[in-house]
Write a structure and sequence with these properties.
Belongs to the short-chain dehydrogenases/reductases (SDR) family. GO terms for molecular function: oxidoreductase activity. One of its GO terms (cellular component) is membrane. It is a single chain. This protein is of the alpha/beta class. It has one domain: NAD(P)-binding Rossmann-like Domain (Rossmann fold, 3-Layer(aba) Sandwich), CATH 3.40.50. It is about 45% helix and about 15% strand. The chain has an eight-stranded mixed beta sheet, with helices on both faces. α4 packs parallel to α6. The longest helix is centred in the middle third of the chain and has 26 residues.
Length: about 250
């Protein structure tokens, strides 16, 4: 614990590739101790090599976020080891089937919501007490423009990201008085495996990379960031406070 006392403890999910990996390396280079969570041990070991190469340190956690017990055990382990966490970058997600809503297999629907929604709720549930013990807790969850564009055939993904948006912004309102920020990140089109899966005919070399995005993740999770309940839109490099006009009253 001594080696991390002066470092911010940052949990990154989906850390073995793409956006999660680039962010984990950038956070480590910025002086954070990274708790890297991913399903693949090999990918985590490659990440660890890159983090060591920039002079950083990491704790590797091979786990599936659909294993609810694993999330709870991680929360307990972090409490016993560090007594707190300072930041969470909830990046892990899946695209799911691109299909007419009426043709989506129920098991595939459940899988998308298990990863994109329920796992993030479980992370909030397990980490909320740890974040309250930080002097400047910062959290960032990966959303998508699909959550409000609602284009044809993207039903499971769009619906799951819309649900995530609602959960995060609700939680942001609940924990604001404790100094915890909870924001969302819209990465836009990036050169990732998920993007290639969604847009197979697209030239990946025309897209920005996860490494281009990573410094903005570091900034959003820094103690200096005080915005909360907002979306950082990477394509426009701007913060979006509200997508829809507020209702005349605070009711439903």
């Amino acid at each position: 614990m001594a080696e991390t006392e002066d470092r911010r403890i940052v949990v990154v999910t989906g850390a073995s590739r793409g956006i999660g990996k680039a962010a984990a390396v950038a956070l480590a280079a910025a002086g954070c101790h990274v708790v890297a969570v991913a399903r693949t041990q090999g990918g985590l070991e490659e990440l660890d090599d890159e983090i060591r190469a920039v002079g950083g340190s990491a704790t590797l956690v091979p786990a599936s976020l659909t294993d609810e017990g694993a999330i709870d055990r991680l929360g307990l382990a972090l409490f016993e080891r560090y007594g707190r966490i300072d930041a969470l970058f909830a990046n892990a997600g899946i695209l799911g089937p691109l299909s007419p809503v009426g043709h989506v297999d129920p098991k595939k629907w459940d899988e998308v919501f298990a990863v994109n929604v329920t796992a993030n709720y479980r992370l909030i549930r397990s980490f909320d007490p740890l974040l309250r013990r930080s002097a400047a807790a910062r959290t960032l969850f990966v959303t998508s423009a699909a959550s409000w564009k609602c284009r044809a055939y993207w039903g499971p993904y769009s619906a799951s990201k819309a649900a995530l948006d609602a959960i995060v912004r609700t939680w942001a309102a609940e924990v604001q008085s404790f100094g915890i920020t909870a924001n969302l990140l819209n990465p836009g089109p990036l050169r990732t495996r998920m993007r290639a899966q969604a847009m197979p005919g697209e030239d990946p070399m025309s897209l920005e990379t996860p490494e281009d995005l990573a410094p903005h993740v570091v900034a959003a999770l820094a103690p200096e960031t005080t915005r909360t309940g907002e979306v950082f839109d990477f394509p426009t490099r701007s913060w979006i406070a509200h997508r829809f006009p507020a209702a005349p009253d605070a009711g439903a």
